[in-house]
Amino acid sequence: MELINAVLVGVAVFIFSQYFLKLILEPTINFRKVLTDISHTLLYNQAKIANAITGDKELPLNISELSARLRSTASLIPGYSFLSFIKIFGLPKKDNILIACQELNLLSFGIKDLGEDQGDQAEKNDRSLKRIAELLQIETTYIEKVKMPQQTHPPDG
What we know:
By secondary structure, this protein is mainly alpha-helical. It is about 70% helix and about 0% strand.
């Protein structure tokens, strides 16, 4: 009887671990890879994006594709909202993903030549980069706010 219980517990542990691995861990890792790809693409092309330089036909397509991949990979994670809430995998909120996808799509149009003033478009692109970083908790620019250390005064003496 003990042998049967041990075998049943072993089988149950195996099934649970496979469920966790295939249905939660692997999709989460794929999602995190998409976040990394987004960060990489935006950092690598920061000069073009920040200055609203048009002419690169692949970059807008790449950003749009990353937006679609972000949305689709998030939907593959069962219990995404719960996992995001408990912050076990560092997942952004589900609502933030939709907004970030919209910002990525706006950004992809911000580097197409649509006849808009380059300075205005550069400002819009900068806002989108900041918003995407905030929503997805990733780096999108090399410019970060640096916290200045508080100055300490020597003790009176």
